[in-house]
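Researcher:
Attend to token order:
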Amino acid sequence: MSMAAFQRAISNNRLCNILTARNVRHFLKGQPIGGRVLEIGSAAGLTTIELARLFPSAEIRSTGHNKEQLWLARQRVNGSNISFGQWDPASLPYPDNYFDAAFEIYNFRCLADYRHAIGEIYRVLKAGAMFYVMDLPRRQTVFSRIFPSSSAFTAKEFYYELKEAGFRIRAFRETSDAFFIKAAKA
């Protein structure tokens, strides 16, 4: 997965980060999350910071593909409970049933094989653990024009892929620019 210069600039833009952080806080408000947490796609660490604020007792393992973005994330994020690694979400270096929760925030749109990544996340989550998804649908929106998708999917297609992998959908919401899913490992 490569990130164009324009995409890097937007993903590091203060206003975009404020809006994303607001969405993350709203989406995850009141969720009882602790233990081991997997974040798929840390980018420059701004969503990682928000996850650490929301869940201070969680042990956060964050993945990313872009070396430059991971370097920025490591510079921005402090905490002994947070670590970053350059891993492919379709091939995670963790044992089965390892994580208590997983997050995917505006990242799967960049993956060539998002279906396999869904299966990998299912594998590393404990039974009953939640997978929280915030992403951009295939339809043309302001954000999808800025962040073109290599694995274009609609919100409903993603919903059904989660079900096909074995997840139980707990909540689904689609807005004009994004979709939000809370799914539990069966």
